[in-house]
Queue: 2 jobs
Job 1
Amino acid sequence: MPCMYLDKILWPSEEFKTAADKNWVLLRADFLQKKGNPEPVNVNDMKMILAEKYNRDGFFPFFVMLDRNGKIIKKSGYEEFDHPAEYVFLFKSMSH
């Protein structure tokens, strides 16, 4: 599952942590999947506000690169990369 790859391989990798510390301010909004009947949506929940603003189509996992003023630079979804360095390259290319 893509989210599990990101949790286990990408986020904790030294390559990603080093690049993130030097280049980005990270915000992670985790949307847990639940089976069965969905719970009522709290429209004031910050995750829901972020999803409405940046990810209206509901693609997960989903990355949004913003400039310092909150303007969207680029959006991307999950890529089947073999190594965290490939994501680092993708995120660096998104920010230029």
Job 2
Amino acid sequence: MSARKPLLDALVSMLTPRDVLVSCLGANARYLPHMEVPSPVFALCDSMGAAIPLALGMALQRPDRHLITLKKNSSLLISPNVLATITAARPPNLNILL
């Protein structure tokens, strides 16, 4: 079992139906589809670098929803410029967990 599973369990226990969870590749994307999550989950397997841009688009289109995205550090290094875009857009409903 990955050390990430207890962290995912804790995160999932705090989610509500108004939240949306976007996860990049790795253990997160493998565990989440098998967990009972009270909110929509986008577990992006084989999508290195795509979680933050997808979550940003959803956050901008759905300001009534709280977006949480899980990102691995190596995936962030694929497209660090997305941080500048997020800084410019400043969506108050987007949280990124690295």
